[in-house]
Design brief:
Order of helices and strands: HEHEEEHEEEHEH
Keywords: Chloroplast, Glycoprotein, Membrane, Metal-binding, Plastid, Signal, Transmembrane, Transmembrane helix
CATH class of the largest domain: Mainly Beta
Number of helices: 5
Strand order of the largest sheet: 2-8-7-4-5
Largest sheet: 5 strands, mixed
Pfam families: Cu_bind_like
InterPro entries: Cupredoxin, Phytocyanin-like, Phytocyanin_dom
GO molecular function, one term: electron transfer activity
Number of strands: 8
Structural class: alpha/beta
Shape: globular
Protein name: Cupredoxin superfamily protein
Oligomer: single chain
């Protein structure tokens, strides 16, 4: 019985990894975090955001994070927001394609560049992709924002990437569990 329990645990772990395939977790601003001193244009350069990815915003208790619409983003309007966070560690799952806008709740910081505009692309490697009717396709990942001078600051995203080989391992592990019970 204990051997079957071990197979069950490992199979469930492998299956869990398979479900999270091709997802990246990005720490916004890397080691600097969501901060006025972070060059967010440089940070996001070359990154491609897709459905299933996650943005993690880490910031001081004196800062905040707001998701807004395009017009509020362009004008740094901090009163017309979709949602605001102030917990210092906010996780935003990117669940659908399209453009997303984030800014600091401090309007002066926003005007100084503490804002992020990303394009989330459809995840082409998803196992069961449902067509989205009426939703615009994003042309490319990255940002349209270009109001800060860029500098060559190295930027690394913390990535969790699981390929199709682990999907196969997960399925085989699950089948192994079923076979061991019969």
């Amino acid at each position: 019985m204990s051997k079957q329990l071990v197979f069950l645990v490992f199979g469930l772990i492998a299956f869990g990894l398979a479900i999270t395939s091709n997802a990246n977790t990005y720490i916004v601003g890397d080691n600097s975090g969501w901060d006025i001193s972070t060059n967010l244009d440089t940070w996001q350069r070359g990154k491609k955001f897709v459905e299933g990815d996650v943005l993690v915003f880490q910031y001081a208790s004196t800062d905040s994070l707001c998701e807004v619409g395009k017009e509020s983003y362009q004008t740094c309007n901090t009163t017309n927001v979709i949602k605001c966070f102030s917990d210092g560690n906010t996780t935003i799952p990117l669940t659908s394609p399209g453009e997303r806008y984030f800014l600091c709740g401090n309007r002066l910081y926003c005007f100084s560049g503490m804002k992020l505009d990303i394009i989330v692309e459809r995840n082409q490697s998803a196992l069961a992709e449902a067509p989205l009717s009426g939703a615009p396709e994003a042309e490319s990942g990255g940002s349209k924002k270009n109001n800060n001078p860029s500098s060559d600051v190295p930027s690394d995203a913390m990535s969790i990437r699981v390929g199709s080989d682990l999907v196969l391992i997960g399925v085989l592990g699950f089948l192994g569990i079923l076979v061991s019970f019969f």
